[in-house]
Specification:
Distance between the termini: 42 Å
Strand order of the largest sheet: 13-12-11-14-15-17-16
Radius of gyration: 26 Å
Structural class: alpha/beta
Number of strands: 17
Shape: elongated
Helix content: 25-40%
Largest sheet: 7 strands, mixed
Length: about 400
């Protein structure tokens, strides 16, 4: 099977090279979205068949199976979060001849005369916030964002940024770029974008106006605390040591059990913003605490779950690569048993023991669940008790 994929913009007066015109004129099977069809239908030879690209794509590719060669029209550069990627995935043996155009973020950069070789790019088109949150925390100078019509509009993006304290960007928005009659582009403050509607399709570029502090080792007194109790937080040096033992750089999913203030999850998100983090706490107060602290330190994307960990339905959550146990409520063995059964191979568990009793409970739970202690480091801060920071690794079965 052979695909000719032609990139276009929203201009109603398209220009095609003689080579591309020849491809169009010598074929009869064409495909693309409804918007693409409205733009190029006057170029199509008579007779022709048009296969509309709609969800589910399975039906579209079933129609493709009837033909040896298909000409597809796609937006901008079809390899830039585009339909060429989909074809490569669905039809890895197919031949692809590509005629790309500028992608939408290139067009916006051209319009605002912004050099874009250092721009970090995120797609929120039908995707979760994860990669966008990561880009914010990393603090890239320029972030290009592909939007969608529903959850990830310019207004929703600006609101999320302001909610978590990222007011250190301006936002350039391009609407219907390429349609020379009605395209629009301008640069705004984030506050002025909130609750404002923009024509779709649109995209945006964020440009940083000033740096935002990204701490390594947040002082304990900067967190909102549980009833103001300074002892109810994993102290900063112990927090950093625990994160070191968790070895999170090459992990994807991190669970924090007994998060209390959320300090471990927040520190992990700041240093490893690529992580998916699920934080569990049985105290109802924890929900407000972690919300306050994630906003204070600019760490969107931490998923807080309230309730007894041993009773929560975790079947829909991704299996963890690393787990920190900040509290066990006397159910150490039950917790370790649950974790041992779902922890990915080479996954790590770290627990901080503050007493001989909790140390014994952890060691016994490891033994019962066929895990072994791999590291144990003792540390003491000021007049607090000596704490053992302990680690185990789940070996491949």
């Amino acid at each position: 099977m052979k695909f000719y994929i032609i990139g276009i913009d929203d201009n109603r007066e398209q220009y095609f090279s003689p080579e591309v015109l020849n491809i169009i004129n010598t074929h009869t099977i064409f495909s693309g979205g409804t918007r693409h069809y409205e733009i190029i239908k006057s170029f199509l030879p008579i007779p022709y068949k048009w296969i509309n690209i709609t969800i589910p794509l399975k039906d579209v590719f079933q129609q493709y199976e009837e033909y040896r060669e298909i000409v597809i029209f796609a937006s901008g550069d079809p390899l830039f979060f585009g339909f060429a990627n989909t074809i490569q995935h669905k039809k890895p043996d197919a031949e692809i001849i590509l005629y790309p155009y500028f992608n939408s973020l290139q067009l916006l950069a051209h319009r605002i005369l912004m050099p874009y070789q250092d721009m970090h790019i995120v797609s929120l088109t039908g995707r979760p916030w994860n990669k966008f949150d990561e880009a914010l925390i990393m603090g890239y100078d320029k972030i290009g964002v592909l939007t969608d019509k529903k959850e990830h509009t310019p207004s929703a993006i600006a609101s999320r940024m302001l909610y978590y304290g990222y007011d250190n960007y301006i936002m350039s928005i391009g609407e219907l770029l390429g349609n020379k009659e009605i395209e629009n582009y301008s640069t705004y403050s984030l506050q002025s974008v909130v609750d404002k509607e923009f024509a779709f399709p649109n995209n945006l570029i964020l440009q940083k106006t000033n740096p935002r502090e990204r701490q390594l080792g947040i002082p304990d007194n900067e967190f909102h605390l549980l009833n103001g109790r300074a002892r109810m937080i994993t102290k900063m040096p112990i927090r950093l040591l625990s994160l070191s033992l968790l070895d999170l750089r090459n992990k994807s999913v991190f669970w924090d059990i007994g998060f209390c203030t959320g300090s471990v999850s927040i520190e992990a998100k700041l240093q490893f913003p690529h992580l998916q983090i699920f934080a569990f706490e049985q105290r109802n107060e924890g929900e407000e605490l972690i919300e306050l602290n994630t906003r204070r330190f600019g760490t969107p994307g931490i998923n807080a779950v309230i309730g007894d960990f041993t009773e929560i339905d975790i079947s829909t959550l991704p299996n963890p690569d690393a787990v920190f146990i900040g509290g066990h409520g006397g159910k150490m063995n039950e917790i370790i048993n649950i974790i041992a059964n779902i922890l990915n191979d080479d996954g790590t568990i770290v627990f901080n023991s503050v007493s001989d009793e909790s140390y014994t409970l952890f060691i016994e739970a490891l033994t019962i669940n066929n895990l072994t202690l791999s590291d144990s480091i003792e540390i003491r801060i000021d007049d607090f008790n000596t704490i053992k920071v302990m680690k185990t690794i789940k070996n491949k079965q």
